[in-house]
Every structure is written in structure tokens, then in C-alpha cells.
Amino acid sequence: MSTPELDRYHRQMLLPGIGEEGQRKLLASSALVLGCGALGTVIANMLARAGVGRLIIADRDFIELTNLQRQVLFDEDDVAQAIPKAEAARRKISRINSQVQVEAVIDDVNHGNIERLVTGVDVVVDGVDNFETRFLANDAAVKHGKPYVYGGAVGTVGMSYAILPHTPGSDSAWEKAGHATPCLRCIFEQAPPPGMNPTCDTAGVLGPVVSIVANFQVAETIKILTGNWAALRTTLLSMDVWENEFRQLRVARAYDVGECACCKKRQFEYLDGKFASSTTTLCGRNAVQLTTKLGQGEKLDFDAIANRLRPHGEVAASKFMIRAQISDNGSPYELTIFTDGRAIVKGTKQPTVARNIYAKYVGA
Ligand SMILES: [Zn+2]
Q: Is 58 exposed, middle or buried (0-12, 13-18, 19+ CB in 10 A)?
């Protein structure tokens, strides 16, 4: 039987795994899209078209011309008007599917606000650009028993993995049905120190790899929201679309054989702020100091960071610090990085701008 509100989902409801019942589940469900850049725009777009009833889109950033190559919800008008990404996405999505309720959160997601965001939704979908926020999202998702769909892409390489967290002592339906999975920390013990990994702003990124990864995330999200847990991919998918390599890493036993601090020992160190970076606006200096807590014995790889910064401006490096003059979207910044994980971003008084510059050019 057809009802007008369901008509637009006809082709999706034809699928045996979804049907009208699955479609009604999607319409009654909610998702947090964490980050609205390359991954997040594709994720939000496809979830809205699929009829996920409520989307919360969180992003701290504004749209720039260089985003348009891959961030599919945005256009030149958005760049000209300097609209925050979350708000531009909200406006665009309400034109794509007016049945979907969209909330834009224009903020830096951190250990102070992530639990509030995560507890209000049925699933968390990862569109962020740094590991600190991913581990934070993983902590919050595990603590509150929410599925979390990880994705990441840089260069021509991408990864995706869906997590149905173990919920000891509670009665999550997937735990009872035997479909709980290892969490992100079961697989990667700790977020790498800043500067260890290339970022899209330093290494570049191919648009298609982002879309591919994001769509794998969306497929898993739709399975989760319709209760098709047995259909979830239990492997960590990794690909290089330039080298034509696709790998599925078998990680299903990581929970059983490991001693995960997060999902097994229930120690939520990222939520507790143990590894959190912090920012301080430096009085009268038009500068912000960022402090990243490094693990014991961890050191920043100065050579790698300096090499990555060189194409973007003048770089002076010594044993003690790196100083780089960077022009980002027409604005000049001076970035000074110290061996102990501290950095000073000169050229702004706003912590979110400083964090953004750091995440883009150093990587967190
Ligand atoms: Zn775990």
C-alpha cells in the first residue's frame, strides 16, 4: 500500500532488506554526521535522500573554494557568502528532502560537548579529518552504546569500518543477537601523535576516493538503522583507488583477543580529556596556543612536518621548533610548533580557526 510520504522511496523499498518496514525505521531514526567536509557532505546528502528522519550535522569550518572539488553539497555561492559548512549543508538538504529534519551545529567537537551530541541520535557517522576526534567519537559511542561508522580518506587511499559496540550489562539488541564488533581502539590502540599522517591539505585528495568511502559508510549506516546487522561488513575495508588495491582486513577477533581500554575495560580516556588537546588565546598577541598531550616517549616527527609544510610557505626549522608562514584562503598565519606538542598559531584570536589551521597543515 502506498502513502504519499513514502512514494519517493519506492526504489529503495523494493529492496528485500528494506521494504516499507525498513523505510519507516529510517524515517523514525536519527544520525549524527560528525564533520561536514568531503566525507560528511556525501554522507549527509545520501542519508537525507534515503529518508533518515533527523540529521545533526556538526562542523566548525567555513566553505572555501578549494573544497568544491570534492565537497558535493556546496557551490560557488556558498564560497562567496562565506557560510559555515554545517549551515550550508542544512539549507541544501532541506531543498533535497523536506521530510528530513536537519540541525546544524557550528562548533568544534570536543570532550566537553560530544556526549550530548552522541546521546541524542541512533548512529554516529564519521566525517572528521583527525584521529583525536575519531577516538573521542569512538569513546562516546561505546560509552553510550551507539553504533559508530568510521571512514577516512587522504590522497588516493581510504578506509571504512562499522562498529556495533559491546554493551556489557545492558541489553542492546545487536549484543544479544551476537553482532557486536570490536571498536576503533580494539584495532588502533591510540591516536597517532600530531603530524604523523598526511592531511588532505598537505598531501591532496582525489574526489572519488572520498565519495567511495563515504558511500560505503552510508550503506553500513542504512543497514544499521534498518536492523540488518547480519548484513554488516565485519572487515576493515581499505583501498587505494590509484593503485587499484582493495583489501579487507579481518578484525572481528580483535575484541576477544585484545585488552581494549575503551570497550573492554570501559576506560574512556579521550572523553576524560586525558589525550585532549587544548587551546588558549594569547592575550594581546592575535595568537592562539594549542597544546596536544603526547603519549609517553612520543615525539613529533619534525622532519616530516617541515617537509609537508614547505610547499605551503616559508619554513624555518631547528631542533627545538618549526616556524612556517602560511597563507590559508588569503589570510596569513604564522605557525610555530614545539617538540613537546605545543603550537602557536599567529594571525587569529579564535581557537576554532587556530585548531583548523593546525589540523589542516600539521594534522591531529
Ligand atoms: Zn574496543
A: buried
